[in-house]
Amino acid sequence: MSAPLNVGIVGTGIFARNKHLPTFQQESDKFRPVACFNRTKSKADAFAVTAGIEASKVYADLDHLLDDDNVDVLDVMVPVQFNYATAKKSVEAGKPVILEKPIEANLEQARKLVQLAESTELPVAIAENWLHLESVPVAREKLAKIGPIAAFTYNSTGPFHPSSEYMATTWRQNPEHIGGFLSDGGVHQLALLTTLLGDVGSIAAFSSQLRKQSGTDDIVFSSVKLRDSDVIGTFTYGSAFGATEKSVFLKVFGLNGSVTVTISSGKPTTIKTMIGATGEVEVQEETVEVKEQPFFGVEAEFVNFHEAVTKKDKSLVKGTPRVAFHHLAIVAAFLESSKKNGTAINVEQP
Ligand SMILES: NC(=O)c1ccc[n+]([C@@H]2O[C@H](COP(=O)([O-])OP(=O)(O)OC[C@H]3O[C@@H](n4cnc5c(N)ncnc54)[C@H](OP(=O)(O)O)[C@@H]3O)[C@@H](O)[C@H]2O)c1
Q1: Which of 130, 182, 201, 208 could form an S-S bond across to 191 if both were Cys, CB 3.0 to 4.6 Å?
Q2: Regarding the domain delimited by 131-292+328-346, which CATH topology (the fold level of the hierarchy) does it fall under?
Q3: Tell me: the pLDDT tens digits for 181-201?
Q4: Distance between CA 335 and CA 245 in Å, rounded?
């Protein structure tokens, strides 16, 4: 068995502490945190103690961390307007890098990140954990039974949580990334939608800001047409409402049946399949439950990154910048369409 990859962590905030570090501890044969850097050094010092990183390996700046030959790969969890600059430095230092989502703050910067990733043999990954959900291959297998697919409705909605620790981060309160919470959480939903059904070609949308704490629009209701097929659908997203269940509901309609995927916090994902060409035949019905990983695919995304790095094969990366660009580009199209009173907008390509 090969030695674990030595990880340099950039940004030791909430998600580093709550999800990435426990993932490294769980996958300790694959990853070992060895160095870190954070804007506020005292937080990096505290993180290092928890992570078992030597005090001398808490760096005061990114360049010193990159100069450390013992660091094999970078794990970046900073406000996303720093993703491209950080990835560029990492690639220049010869180190593969995984960066948290959304890919960047806007499409211009995201495009540069795609070009960077496509100009190097080093794996560059965007940590879009919903691409790695256990329910994805199961839903795909069911979808293959109801085709051709004609339409879908996707609804991911939830109540506002003003005291959530994420709400307290200043970079979310005053977002430099387009769409604020719409892109922060929305790219997860768009990752799941597009990995199951294909890329979005055009959309017509209305977005709106319900909560001043969101800093910008926080809900979107849209009509969608896929790029490489005639599939049409609706996409609704927002966690800014009054009391309601937090859930994801995707119903896909085919000419030979339907598949309904329901994700509710704390419960297994359910996937219901109904097969039958009309309402007048005997319908075959089946519901399966799929248990997601505790960190909702973060574990699998790191196993995927490890495989790409150790095999020196960037084509193994699932969450490539090109894939992640598409999710942010859909959010950009929502915002543009809404600004133009719901006019249909083509989703930009990298
Ligand atoms: N996949 C998911 O489900 C998921 C969930 C949550 C977050 N994330 C992603 O993880 C990343 C971090 O989010 P978080 O929730 O952990 O936020 P966070 O706690 O605010 O962490 C961000 C880190 O970046 C640092 N930072 C803030 N502003 C900076 C600046 N101007 N220059 C340099 N560093 C700066 C902060 O340093 P200070 O200590 O100085 O503030 C902090 O350590 C984001 O990309 C976010 O989208 C992903």
Answers
A1: 130
A2: Dihydrodipicolinate Reductase; domain 2 (3.30.360)
A3: 999 999 999 999 999 999 999
A4: 25
